[in-house]
Design goal:
Cytochrome Bc1 Complex, Chain D, domain 2; 2 domains; about 0% strand
């Protein structure tokens, strides 16, 4: 009987040791898999995120002053597209500045000038440095 108790205790101890190691190994393996999955997910998220678009001061000013209501980069809305304006005023920055200060004639679409005229008050009131930034942005659109 003592022999049977001794064998039973030995068997229980060896099983607990075996299961203890197994649990520890399993726990370690789960942690390793979890860590590698977390890293993989993190890397995937980084790859899926698009970089933030950098907005130039001129583009910001263009948007902040409400110019996008009538003008888009390549599509004619109420007014001509920025590409059309930039093409018409290529090598003529002074002409665009003059128009935006209400001191020059429109050369892009003179028939639409009356629509733009109420908005000229906004560009006319801009400080010279902001007007220059705005004009540089418009002329930079290709």
């Amino acid at each position: 009987m003592k022999k049977e108790i001794f064998l039973t205790i030995s068997l229980v101890l060896s099983m607990s040791v075996t299961f203890g190691i197994s649990k520890k190994e399993t726990s370690t393996n789960i942690e390793q898999v979890s860590t590698s999955n977390t890293k993989a997910i993190s890397n995937s998220e980084k790859n899926l995120q698009s970089p933030a678009k950098v907005v130039s001061p001129g583009e910001k000013l263009f948007k902040d002053k409400g110019c996008t209501v009538c003008h888009q980069v390549s599509t004619k809305l109420v007014g001509p597209s920025l590409k059309t304006i930039a093409t018409a005023y290529v090598n003529n920055k002074k002409g665009l500045v003059a128009f935006l200060k209400d001191a020059g004639k429109p050369i892009v679409d003179p028939a639409q000038a009356s629509v733009m005229h109420p908005q000229i008050a906004i560009t006319k009131a801009l400080p010279p440095n902001e007007l220059d930034i705005l004009v540089n942005y418009i002329l930079s659109v290709k």
